[in-house]
Recover the amino acids of this structure.
Protein backbone atom coordinates (compact mmCIF):
# COMPACT_ATOMS: atom_id res chain seq x y z
CA UNK A 1 0.00 0.00 0.00
CA UNK A 2 2.83 2.40 0.87
CA UNK A 3 4.60 1.70 -2.43
CA UNK A 4 1.36 2.26 -4.30
CA UNK A 5 0.86 5.57 -2.50
CA UNK A 6 4.50 6.52 -3.23
CA UNK A 7 4.09 5.84 -6.95
CA UNK A 8 0.87 7.81 -7.01
CA UNK A 9 2.54 10.69 -5.17
CA UNK A 10 5.39 10.75 -7.71
CA UNK A 11 2.97 10.54 -10.66
CA UNK A 12 0.70 13.33 -9.40
CA UNK A 13 3.64 15.61 -8.53
CA UNK A 14 5.26 15.03 -11.93
CA UNK A 15 1.97 15.70 -13.72
CA UNK A 16 1.52 18.90 -11.70
CA UNK A 17 4.97 20.12 -12.72
CA UNK A 18 4.26 19.14 -16.33
CA UNK A 19 1.11 21.27 -16.33
CA UNK A 20 2.98 24.22 -14.79
CA UNK A 21 5.84 23.96 -17.30
CA UNK A 22 3.39 23.56 -20.16
CA UNK A 23 1.49 26.64 -19.04
CA UNK A 24 4.56 28.84 -18.56
CA UNK A 25 6.59 27.68 -21.57
CA UNK A 26 3.48 27.42 -23.74
CA UNK A 27 2.53 30.97 -22.81
CA UNK A 28 6.01 32.24 -23.63
CA UNK A 29 6.01 30.45 -26.98
CA UNK A 30 2.52 31.68 -27.77
CA UNK A 31 3.48 35.28 -27.10
CA UNK A 32 6.71 34.85 -29.11
CA UNK A 33 4.90 33.41 -32.13
CA UNK A 34 2.19 36.06 -31.89
CA UNK A 35 4.77 38.86 -31.91
CA UNK A 36 6.61 37.25 -34.82
CA UNK A 37 3.34 36.94 -36.75
CA UNK A 38 2.52 40.57 -36.02
CA UNK A 39 5.97 41.57 -37.23
CA UNK A 40 5.41 39.73 -40.52
CA UNK A 41 2.07 41.52 -40.91
CA UNK A 42 3.60 44.92 -40.18
CA UNK A 43 6.47 44.44 -42.64
CA UNK A 44 4.05 43.37 -45.38
CA UNK A 45 1.85 46.39 -44.65
CA UNK A 46 4.85 48.74 -44.90
CA UNK A 47 5.92 47.14 -48.19
CA UNK A 48 2.38 47.16 -49.61
CA UNK A 49 1.88 50.85 -48.72
CA UNK A 50 5.11 51.79 -50.51
CA UNK A 51 4.68 49.67 -53.66
CA UNK A 52 7.01 46.90 -52.49
CA UNK A 53 9.90 49.17 -51.58
CA UNK A 54 11.70 50.17 -48.42
CA UNK A 55 13.86 53.21 -48.84
CA UNK A 56 15.12 56.02 -46.68
CA UNK A 57 12.81 58.60 -48.17
CA UNK A 58 9.50 56.73 -48.12
CA UNK A 59 9.88 55.17 -44.66
CA UNK A 60 10.44 57.46 -41.69
CA UNK A 61 11.57 56.68 -38.16
CA UNK A 62 8.15 57.73 -36.89
CA UNK A 63 6.44 55.21 -39.20
CA UNK A 64 8.72 52.39 -38.09
CA UNK A 65 8.25 53.08 -34.40
CA UNK A 66 4.50 53.39 -34.83
CA UNK A 67 4.24 49.94 -36.46
CA UNK A 68 7.03 48.02 -34.70
CA UNK A 69 7.35 49.71 -31.32
CA UNK A 70 9.50 52.44 -29.77
CA UNK A 71 12.59 50.20 -29.52
CA UNK A 72 12.75 49.52 -33.28
CA UNK A 73 15.04 51.57 -35.50
CA UNK A 74 14.50 52.45 -39.14
CA UNK A 75 17.66 50.57 -40.10
CA UNK A 76 16.20 47.23 -38.92
CA UNK A 77 13.75 47.20 -41.84
CA UNK A 78 16.55 46.56 -44.33
CA UNK A 79 17.30 43.10 -42.92
CA UNK A 80 14.27 41.47 -44.55
CA UNK A 81 14.23 39.45 -47.82
CA UNK A 82 11.24 40.11 -50.12
CA UNK A 83 10.10 40.49 -53.71
CA UNK A 84 7.10 42.08 -55.45
CA UNK A 85 4.98 41.20 -58.47
CA UNK A 86 2.52 43.57 -60.21
CA UNK A 87 -0.47 42.62 -62.39
CA UNK A 88 -2.57 44.67 -64.79
CA UNK A 89 -6.38 44.58 -65.07
CA UNK A 90 -6.36 41.44 -67.24
CA UNK A 91 -4.19 39.49 -64.81
CA UNK A 92 -0.93 39.67 -66.73
CA UNK A 93 2.34 40.37 -64.94
CA UNK A 94 3.65 43.85 -65.75
CA UNK A 95 6.57 44.07 -63.34
CA UNK A 96 8.71 41.89 -61.07
CA UNK A 97 10.94 43.44 -58.42
CA UNK A 98 13.39 40.81 -57.16
CA UNK A 99 16.21 43.10 -56.13
CA UNK A 100 15.84 42.19 -52.44
CA UNK A 101 15.90 38.39 -52.83
CA UNK A 102 18.70 36.14 -54.11
CA UNK A 103 17.45 32.60 -53.63
CA UNK A 104 14.34 32.68 -55.85
CA UNK A 105 14.70 32.89 -59.66
CA UNK A 106 12.35 34.67 -62.05
CA UNK A 107 10.49 31.52 -63.13
CA UNK A 108 9.77 30.54 -59.53
CA UNK A 109 8.61 34.09 -58.75
CA UNK A 110 6.27 33.98 -61.73
CA UNK A 111 4.80 30.63 -60.67
CA UNK A 112 4.33 31.75 -57.06
CA UNK A 113 2.72 35.01 -58.15
CA UNK A 114 0.24 33.30 -60.51
CA UNK A 115 -0.66 30.81 -57.79
CA UNK A 116 -1.26 33.56 -55.22
CA UNK A 117 -3.24 35.61 -57.78
CA UNK A 118 -5.60 32.68 -58.42
CA UNK A 119 -6.21 32.18 -54.70
CA UNK A 120 -7.85 35.61 -54.52
CA UNK A 121 -6.92 35.92 -50.84
CA UNK A 122 -5.62 39.10 -49.23
CA UNK A 123 -3.15 37.16 -47.07
CA UNK A 124 -1.57 33.72 -47.26
CA UNK A 125 1.54 31.56 -47.19
CA UNK A 126 3.44 29.50 -49.72
CA UNK A 127 6.60 27.37 -49.66
CA UNK A 128 9.57 27.38 -52.00
CA UNK A 129 12.88 25.61 -51.52
CA UNK A 130 12.07 24.69 -47.92
CA UNK A 131 11.36 28.33 -46.99
CA UNK A 132 7.95 29.75 -46.09
CA UNK A 133 6.91 33.03 -47.71
CA UNK A 134 4.05 35.18 -46.46
CA UNK A 135 2.31 37.27 -49.09
CA UNK A 136 -0.09 40.18 -49.18
CA UNK A 137 -2.33 40.86 -52.18
CA UNK A 138 -3.43 44.45 -52.68
CA UNK A 139 -6.03 45.59 -55.24
CA UNK A 140 -5.64 49.12 -56.53
CA UNK A 141 -8.54 51.40 -57.36
CA UNK A 142 -7.62 51.22 -61.05
CA UNK A 143 -7.99 47.42 -61.09
CA UNK A 144 -4.29 46.64 -60.88
CA UNK A 145 -2.97 44.14 -58.33
CA UNK A 146 0.30 43.96 -56.39
CA UNK A 147 1.52 40.92 -54.46
CA UNK A 148 4.32 41.29 -51.92
CA UNK A 149 6.18 38.11 -50.83
CA UNK A 150 8.20 38.14 -47.58
CA UNK A 151 10.68 35.51 -46.39
CA UNK A 152 9.48 34.58 -42.87
CA UNK A 153 12.62 32.65 -41.89
CA UNK A 154 14.46 35.71 -40.55
CA UNK A 155 11.53 36.79 -38.40
CA UNK A 156 10.47 33.32 -37.22
CA UNK A 157 14.03 32.13 -36.51
CA UNK A 158 14.06 33.56 -32.98
CA UNK A 159 10.64 32.05 -32.19
CA UNK A 160 11.70 28.62 -33.51
CA UNK A 161 14.95 28.78 -31.54
CA UNK A 162 13.03 29.71 -28.41
CA UNK A 163 10.73 26.73 -28.95
CA UNK A 164 13.70 24.34 -29.17
CA UNK A 165 15.29 25.80 -26.04
CA UNK A 166 11.98 25.73 -24.14
CA UNK A 167 11.27 22.12 -25.14
CA UNK A 168 14.78 21.02 -24.13
CA UNK A 169 14.67 22.86 -20.81
CA UNK A 170 11.18 21.58 -20.09
CA UNK A 171 12.10 17.93 -20.72
CA UNK A 172 15.36 18.19 -18.75
CA UNK A 173 13.60 19.95 -15.85
CA UNK A 174 10.84 17.36 -15.78
CA UNK A 175 13.33 14.47 -15.79
CA UNK A 176 15.49 16.03 -13.07
CA UNK A 177 12.45 16.78 -10.94
CA UNK A 178 11.18 13.21 -11.33
CA UNK A 179 14.57 11.74 -10.42
CA UNK A 180 14.90 13.97 -7.37
CA UNK A 181 11.32 13.16 -6.37
CA UNK A 182 11.99 9.42 -6.67
CA UNK A 183 15.10 9.79 -4.53
CA UNK A 184 13.38 11.86 -1.84
CA UNK A 185 9.82 10.53 -2.00
CA UNK A 186 10.34 8.11 0.88
CA UNK A 187 11.47 11.00 3.06
CA UNK A 188 8.50 13.10 1.96
CA UNK A 189 5.97 10.44 2.94
CA UNK A 190 7.93 9.22 5.97
CA UNK A 191 5.24 10.42 8.44
CA UNK A 192 2.65 8.36 6.54
CA UNK A 193 4.98 5.36 6.49
CA UNK A 194 5.53 5.65 10.24
CA UNK A 195 1.81 6.07 10.93
CA UNK A 196 1.01 3.02 8.77
CA UNK A 197 3.71 1.01 10.50
CA UNK A 198 2.46 1.95 13.96
CA UNK A 199 -1.10 1.12 12.92
CA UNK A 200 -0.09 -2.35 11.74
CA UNK A 201 1.96 -2.95 14.86
CA UNK A 202 -0.96 -1.85 17.04
CA UNK A 203 -3.38 -4.15 15.20
CA UNK A 204 -1.01 -7.11 15.44
CA UNK A 205 -0.07 -6.51 19.10
CA UNK A 206 -3.63 -5.71 20.17
CA UNK A 207 -4.85 -8.80 18.35
CA UNK A 208 -2.44 -11.06 20.19
CA UNK A 209 -3.19 -9.35 23.52
CA UNK A 210 -6.94 -9.77 23.03
CA UNK A 211 -6.63 -13.47 22.27
CA UNK A 212 -5.56 -14.24 25.84
CA UNK A 213 -8.62 -12.81 27.66
CA UNK A 214 -10.88 -14.29 24.98
CA UNK A 215 -9.34 -17.71 25.57
CA UNK A 216 -9.89 -17.29 29.33
CA UNK A 217 -13.51 -16.22 28.82
CA UNK A 218 -14.10 -19.22 26.55
CA UNK A 219 -12.51 -21.59 29.09
CA UNK A 220 -14.52 -20.13 31.98
CA UNK A 221 -17.69 -20.45 29.94
CA UNK A 222 -16.98 -24.10 29.21
CA UNK A 223 -16.28 -24.76 32.92
CA UNK A 224 -19.53 -23.02 33.84
CA UNK A 225 -21.38 -25.27 31.39
CA UNK A 226 -19.75 -28.34 32.93
CA UNK A 227 -20.89 -27.28 36.43
CA UNK A 228 -24.30 -25.72 35.79
CA UNK A 229 -25.15 -26.93 32.33
CA UNK A 230 -25.54 -25.01 29.08
CA UNK A 231 -27.73 -21.90 29.19
CA UNK A 232 -28.64 -19.17 26.73
CA UNK A 233 -26.06 -16.93 28.42
CA UNK A 234 -23.18 -19.37 28.02
CA UNK A 235 -24.21 -20.02 24.42
CA UNK A 236 -24.25 -16.27 23.74
CA UNK A 237 -20.83 -15.90 25.39
CA UNK A 238 -19.33 -18.58 23.15
CA UNK A 239 -20.85 -17.05 20.02
CA UNK A 240 -19.47 -13.60 20.85
CA UNK A 241 -16.04 -15.05 21.67
CA UNK A 242 -16.00 -16.84 18.30
CA UNK A 243 -17.09 -13.64 16.57
CA UNK A 244 -14.36 -11.56 18.19
CA UNK A 245 -11.78 -14.25 17.42
CA UNK A 246 -12.69 -14.18 13.74
CA UNK A 247 -12.51 -10.38 13.70
CA UNK A 248 -9.06 -10.37 15.32
CA UNK A 249 -7.76 -13.01 12.92
CA UNK A 250 -9.08 -11.05 9.94
CA UNK A 251 -7.50 -7.82 11.16
CA UNK A 252 -4.13 -9.51 11.66
CA UNK A 253 -4.38 -11.16 8.24
CA UNK A 254 -5.20 -7.84 6.60
CA UNK A 255 -2.23 -6.14 8.27
CA UNK A 256 0.07 -8.94 7.10
CA UNK A 257 -1.26 -8.72 3.55
CA UNK A 258 -0.29 -5.04 3.41
CA UNK A 259 3.26 -5.99 4.40
CA UNK A 260 3.69 -7.86 1.12
CA UNK A 261 3.28 -11.45 2.36
CA UNK A 262 5.71 -14.04 1.14
CA UNK A 263 4.23 -15.64 -1.94
CA UNK A 264 5.47 -18.32 -4.25
CA UNK A 265 4.20 -17.16 -7.62
CA UNK A 266 4.13 -20.10 -10.01
CA UNK A 267 1.92 -21.67 -12.67
CA UNK A 268 -0.95 -23.38 -10.84
CA UNK A 269 -4.03 -25.35 -11.83
CA UNK A 270 -6.75 -22.75 -11.27
CA UNK A 271 -9.48 -25.22 -12.20
CA UNK A 272 -8.49 -27.60 -9.41
CA UNK A 273 -8.29 -24.79 -6.82
CA UNK A 274 -11.68 -23.35 -7.75
CA UNK A 275 -13.28 -26.80 -7.80
CA UNK A 276 -11.84 -27.61 -4.37
CA UNK A 277 -13.21 -24.37 -2.91
CA UNK A 278 -16.60 -24.93 -4.55
CA UNK A 279 -16.83 -28.47 -3.17
CA UNK A 280 -16.11 -27.22 0.35
CA UNK A 281 -18.96 -24.69 0.20
CA UNK A 282 -21.54 -26.75 -1.70
CA UNK A 283 -22.94 -28.58 1.32
CA UNK A 284 -23.19 -25.39 3.39
CA UNK A 285 -24.95 -23.45 0.63
CA UNK A 286 -27.44 -26.18 -0.31
CA UNK A 287 -28.13 -26.92 3.37
CA UNK A 288 -29.40 -23.35 3.72
CA UNK A 289 -31.88 -23.91 0.90
CA UNK A 290 -29.98 -22.01 -1.79
CA UNK A 291 -29.16 -23.13 -5.30
CA UNK A 292 -25.54 -23.75 -6.30
CA UNK A 293 -24.14 -24.15 -9.81
CA UNK A 294 -20.61 -24.36 -11.21
CA UNK A 295 -19.18 -23.99 -14.70
CA UNK A 296 -15.46 -24.64 -14.30
CA UNK A 297 -13.41 -25.18 -17.43
CA UNK A 298 -10.80 -27.92 -16.94
CA UNK A 299 -7.07 -27.37 -17.18
CA UNK A 300 -7.06 -23.58 -16.76
CA UNK A 301 -3.64 -22.35 -15.71
CA UNK A 302 -2.67 -19.01 -14.10
CA UNK A 303 0.37 -17.61 -12.34
CA UNK A 304 -0.38 -17.17 -8.64
CA UNK A 305 0.40 -18.50 -5.19
CA UNK A 306 -1.59 -21.74 -4.85
CA UNK A 307 -2.53 -21.30 -1.18
CA UNK A 308 -3.48 -17.65 -1.51
CA UNK A 309 -5.43 -18.33 -4.72
CA UNK A 310 -7.43 -20.96 -2.87
CA UNK A 311 -7.99 -18.45 -0.04
CA UNK A 312 -9.20 -15.94 -2.66
CA UNK A 313 -11.80 -18.44 -3.90
CA UNK A 314 -12.94 -19.06 -0.34
CA UNK A 315 -13.36 -15.32 0.32
CA UNK A 316 -15.54 -14.86 -2.77
CA UNK A 317 -17.67 -17.94 -2.08
CA UNK A 318 -18.10 -17.03 1.59
CA UNK A 319 -19.16 -13.51 0.62
CA UNK A 320 -21.60 -14.85 -2.02
CA UNK A 321 -23.17 -17.28 0.44
CA UNK A 322 -23.38 -14.65 3.16
CA UNK A 323 -25.21 -12.06 1.05
CA UNK A 324 -27.25 -14.40 -1.15
CA UNK A 325 -31.01 -13.98 -0.77
CA UNK A 326 -32.94 -16.72 0.99
CA UNK A 327 -33.84 -19.31 -1.62
CA UNK A 328 -31.48 -17.60 -4.07
CA UNK A 329 -28.62 -19.03 -6.09
CA UNK A 330 -24.81 -18.94 -5.93
CA UNK A 331 -22.88 -19.51 -9.14
CA UNK A 332 -19.20 -20.07 -9.95
CA UNK A 333 -17.71 -19.62 -13.43
CA UNK A 334 -14.14 -20.21 -14.58
CA UNK A 335 -13.21 -19.88 -18.22
CA UNK A 336 -10.35 -18.79 -20.46
CA UNK A 337 -10.33 -16.65 -23.59
CA UNK A 338 -7.54 -17.71 -25.92
CA UNK A 339 -8.02 -14.63 -28.10
CA UNK A 340 -7.33 -12.15 -25.28
CA UNK A 341 -5.25 -14.70 -23.32
CA UNK A 342 -7.25 -13.90 -20.19
CA UNK A 343 -8.75 -16.10 -17.47
CA UNK A 344 -12.05 -15.04 -15.92
CA UNK A 345 -13.22 -16.18 -12.49
CA UNK A 346 -16.73 -15.01 -11.69
CA UNK A 347 -18.73 -15.66 -8.51
CA UNK A 348 -22.32 -14.46 -8.36
CA UNK A 349 -25.24 -14.50 -5.96
CA UNK A 350 -28.83 -13.30 -6.17
CA UNK A 351 -29.25 -10.02 -4.31
CA UNK A 352 -32.63 -8.39 -4.97
CA UNK A 353 -31.86 -5.25 -2.95
CA UNK A 354 -28.58 -4.51 -4.72
CA UNK A 355 -29.82 -2.37 -7.59
CA UNK A 356 -29.01 1.04 -6.07
CA UNK A 357 -25.72 0.12 -4.36
CA UNK A 358 -22.37 1.70 -5.23
CA UNK A 359 -20.26 -1.40 -5.90
CA UNK A 360 -17.00 0.53 -6.10
CA UNK A 361 -17.11 0.85 -2.30
CA UNK A 362 -17.27 -2.90 -1.74
CA UNK A 363 -13.48 -3.14 -1.78
CA UNK A 364 -12.99 -0.43 0.85
CA UNK A 365 -11.82 -1.71 4.20
CA UNK A 366 -14.56 -2.21 6.80
CA UNK A 367 -17.25 -1.12 4.32
CA UNK A 368 -20.65 -2.70 4.78
CA UNK A 369 -23.82 -1.92 2.89
CA UNK A 370 -25.68 -2.04 6.20
CA UNK A 371 -24.32 1.18 7.74
CA UNK A 372 -26.32 0.66 10.92
CA UNK A 373 -24.42 -2.60 11.56
CA UNK A 374 -27.69 -4.18 12.70
CA UNK A 375 -27.71 -6.70 9.88
CA UNK A 376 -27.95 -10.34 10.86
CA UNK A 377 -25.40 -11.15 8.19
CA UNK A 378 -21.99 -11.82 9.73
CA UNK A 379 -19.02 -9.85 8.45
CA UNK A 380 -16.70 -6.93 9.04
CA UNK A 381 -16.08 -5.53 5.56
CA UNK A 382 -12.59 -7.02 5.40
CA UNK A 383 -12.89 -10.01 3.06
CA UNK A 384 -13.27 -8.16 -0.24
CA UNK A 385 -10.44 -5.79 0.66
CA UNK A 386 -8.24 -8.84 1.22
CA UNK A 387 -9.46 -10.30 -2.08
CA UNK A 388 -8.50 -7.11 -3.93
CA UNK A 389 -5.02 -7.17 -2.34
CA UNK A 390 -4.51 -10.77 -3.44
CA UNK A 391 -5.72 -10.12 -7.00
CA UNK A 392 -3.32 -7.19 -7.35
CA UNK A 393 -0.50 -9.38 -6.06
CA UNK A 394 -1.34 -11.81 -8.89
CA UNK A 395 -1.19 -8.90 -11.41
CA UNK A 396 -4.91 -9.17 -12.09
CA UNK A 397 -8.06 -7.04 -11.85
CA UNK A 398 -11.22 -7.44 -9.77
CA UNK A 399 -14.55 -5.71 -10.32
CA UNK A 400 -18.19 -5.89 -9.24
CA UNK A 401 -21.32 -5.59 -11.35
CA UNK A 402 -25.05 -6.10 -10.93
CA UNK A 403 -27.28 -7.70 -13.56
CA UNK A 404 -30.67 -9.44 -13.45
CA UNK A 405 -30.91 -9.15 -9.64
CA UNK A 406 -27.56 -10.91 -9.32
CA UNK A 407 -24.33 -9.49 -7.91
CA UNK A 408 -21.19 -10.69 -9.69
CA UNK A 409 -17.57 -10.38 -8.61
CA UNK A 410 -15.26 -10.86 -11.57
CA UNK A 411 -11.52 -11.52 -11.50
CA UNK A 412 -9.37 -11.40 -14.64
CA UNK A 413 -5.88 -12.90 -14.72
CA UNK A 414 -3.42 -13.59 -17.48
CA UNK A 415 -3.66 -17.04 -19.01
CA UNK A 416 -0.51 -19.15 -18.96
CA UNK A 417 0.49 -22.50 -20.37
Amino acid sequence: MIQKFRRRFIAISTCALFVVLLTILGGMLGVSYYKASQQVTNVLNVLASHDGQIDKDSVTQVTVQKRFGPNTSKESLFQYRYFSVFFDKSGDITKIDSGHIATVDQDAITDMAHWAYKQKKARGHTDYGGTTYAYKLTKKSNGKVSIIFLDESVIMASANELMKIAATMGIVSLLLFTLVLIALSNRAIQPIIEAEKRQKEFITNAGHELKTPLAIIETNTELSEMISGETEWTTSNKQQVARLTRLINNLISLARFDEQPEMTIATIDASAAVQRAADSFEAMITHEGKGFSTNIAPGVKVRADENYFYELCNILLDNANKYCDDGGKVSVLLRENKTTRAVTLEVGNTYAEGKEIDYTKFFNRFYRDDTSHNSKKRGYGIGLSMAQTLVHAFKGKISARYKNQTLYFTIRLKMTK
About this structure: The longest strand covers residues 131-139. The chain has three domains: 2-158, 190-258, 266-414. The radius of gyration is 39 Å.
